[in-house]
Design a protein that fits this description.
Strand order of the largest sheet: 1-8-3-6
Structural class: alpha+beta
Number of strands: 8
Distance between the termini: 28 Å
CATH superfamily: Jelly Rolls
Oligomer: single chain
Number of helices: 4
Largest sheet: 4 strands, antiparallel
Helix content: 25-40%
CATH architecture: Sandwich
Shape: globular
Length: 121
Amino acid sequence: MNPASLFHSSKSTKSFAAGEVILEHGQQNSSMYVVLDGEIDITVHGVTVETLKEGGIFGEMSLVDQSPCSATAFARVPARVAVVGRQQFIFLVQEHPTFALHLMGVLADRLRRMDDRASGS
């Protein structure tokens, strides 16, 4: 599933210039973002842990647990993202079970990669 397909006609989008910060570690966040165009780097303590392209999701953890951002996200190149607020997020999870499963897969994959890094694998 490519989540971007759900949001290409969204009226709630934002564009970012290369290098522009979208989310900052420790910041309160009430939205999830879906990459529509461009590339987004996700960094933790200054280290790039992931580069997202079309369909990539970030900011979702803050919607799930309402905690501050655990990473910083910035546009690697000019980028456009769909902004998904909490109500729309809840609707998507309820109405599109495949979206919820995809999101769980994204979270599981990130956790496994972080575990591999921590164990030196």
